[in-house]
Amino acid sequence: MEPDFDTEMWWGTLGSVRPFPNFRPDSDITEIQDACRRNDVASLVRILPNRDNAQRQSLAEAYLTTTSKELSVDLKKALSGDVEKLLLDLLLPPDQFDAQRLHLAMKGLGTDEETLLEVLCTRTPSQLKAIVLAYNNMYKKDLEKDLDGETSGDFTKLLLALVKKEAGVGSVNQDFKSLYEELTAEKASASQWISILTTRHPDHLKRVLTRLEGHVGKPVTDILEKRFGGDLKLGLTTLVRCIQNSAAYLAKRLESMKGGIVRGVLVSHCEEDLLTVRVAFLRATGCSLYSTLEKRFDGHFQSGLLALCRAED
Fold it and tell me: I need a surface site. Which of 60, 75, 142, 292 has the fewest CB within 10 A?
């Protein structure tokens, strides 16, 4: 029997941010209130990124009880720019933060397909269920309807299948055969790829893709890039990269060093698997993520990102 990796536990054990020892909400509340009054951003950055998410939720609840004010409201008065976005992001539970990322990716003119794919491809079925519920509650909208309205064609079918992702058991031989037959067919069809890649356990899919690559002598991503086009090509290749090595995929995302992408990945993964992403980043670039963040960013935003990254490799 294969192990059940899709548990109720949200955070993993390969995160860079761990529970803060001797956590005392009362002490934090006093410091935060004083920092907000004095616009002492350095103190706020010292406190919030150094607590884990559960502690931040407890702190926000205690803050409301003690002061009769929302912590986020007071933070907005003291903060601005990228560091404001970072600390407010850290106050959200993981499912709400990912729901917010999906919402912002579809808000306004144009759609950020890459962020949609990052969230949907790197989350487990149970996490996705929580994200869908959070999205519907936060925005009073249906996530699937929004995805359908913002995208089109087979790319939409892929996104909707990812939202309902399963980690089922299949036959490696049969799945290999189905995908190989699709590759050798005269007309390209995404249906088999979407069906198989969104309904099987990642370990099963790794075996299928490894066998397929051995048979055709090329990386599956190279094959898909030639066989499909547009957003569907982006979607399928992203999904395959996440299945094969999600840490390497996230490290590649971080190489852009764009503030929004870096903030999104670090907040999403700092308590889950950022240690593996750091290793993948070092392997891909020859430079540690910590040093790269130091060179690319400055000020309080840099300090907050470094607190989440935690250390050199």
Answer: 142
Return the residue matching tokens 């004083």: 34
**Residues 269, 276 contacting (CB under 8 angstroms):** no
Q: Are 29 and 66 in contact (CB under 8 A)?
A: yes
Is the Cβ–Cβ distance between 32 and 66 less than 8 Å?
Answer: no
CA distance to 178, 190, 197, 232, 236, per residue, from 187 (Å): 14, 10, 20, 15, 17
In the three-class reduction of DSSP (H, G, I as helix; E, B as strand; rest coil), residue 200 is classed as strand
CB-based contact 16:311 (threshold 8 Å): yes
C-beta of residue 7 within 8 angstroms of C-beta of residue 48: no
Separation CA 4–CA 206 (nearest Å): 16
Q: Could you tell me how many residues make up the chain?
A: 313
Residues 6+ apart with CB under 8 A from 248: 241, 280, 283, 284
Most distant CA atoms of the chain, gap in Å = 68
SS3 230: helix
What span, in angstroms and rounded, lies between the C-alpha atoms of 29 and 128? 33
**Closest by CA position to 130, among listed 27, 25, 7:** 7
Q: Which tens digits make up the pLDDT trace of 281-304?
A: 999 999 999 999 999 999 999 999
How many CA atoms lie within 13 Å of 312's alpha carbon, on the beta-carbon side? Answer: 4
Rounded to an integer, what distance in angstroms lies between the CA atom of residue 144 and that of residue 114? 17
State the first-to-last Cα distance of the chain, in angstroms, to the nearest integer: 36
Cα angle 220, 117, 145 (rounded to 5 degrees) comes to 125
Residues linked to residue 79 through DSSP beta bridges, in sequence order: none
**Nearest Cα to 115, choosing from 298, 7, 229, 267?**
267
Q: Are residues 298 and 288 in contact, defined by beta-carbon separation less than 8 angstroms?
A: no
**Does the predicted model carry a pTM greater than 0.70?**
yes
Whether the CB-CB separation of 95 and 130 falls below 8 Å is answered with: yes
Quickly state the pLDDT bin for 244 (edges 50, 70, 90): very high
How far apart are the C-alpha atoms of 219 and 214, rounded to whole Å? 9
